[in-house]
Amino acid sequence: MAMDVESSRNLTWKSAWMKDSGKRNSYYASIAKCMASRAAVSNANLAVQVFGGMGFNTESPVEKLYRDAKIYEIYEGTSQIQRLIVSRFVEDAYKP
Known about the structure:
With about 100 residues, the protein is an all-alpha fold. Helices cover about 75% and strands about 0% of the residues. It has helices at about 1-20, 25-50, 60-70, 80-95.
């Protein structure tokens, strides 16, 4: 869990640094968004597992965390769109 959070945080900082430096940051921003949303869903899912059946109860704060985390994969461009952006950058980098 901690590794996912730290990786996402570092990618976000790298993306912000690129933007502040006046460089194009679409590549790192897409990776950061995809990694952070995946980490949020994964960590929320683990929290639901810890709580067991109570994790799905609407009165549980863990259930709301899971719903909120899942929406991050959809808002501001789905994870599939972010992966497409990354793949295009990688493809362009290796064109002859």
